[in-house]
Write a structure and sequence with these properties.
Layout: H1 3-23, H2 32-53, H3 63-89
Amino acid sequence: MEVTGFFTAIIIGLIIGALGRLVVPGKQTIPIWLTLLIGVVAAILGTLVAAAVGVDDTAGVDWIELIIQVVFAAIGVVIAAGAYGRRRTH
């Protein structure tokens, strides 16, 4: 991953975190900063996975890479909401 790709993944990750949260049904009890952090991590992981699979550089919008990133963000939000919710109730 190039340096510009890394910074782009961070910026896109802020949006990806919000999309991941929207995809997950129900109310999530995690703070917005955690959602954004999950989005950044999901964007970086999604970019790495897309590069490994060979779909990171396509003509136009990289829809497959974007879908991979949103899926990672949704999984991260579900895991964090479960862990954060259990921690807050005890």
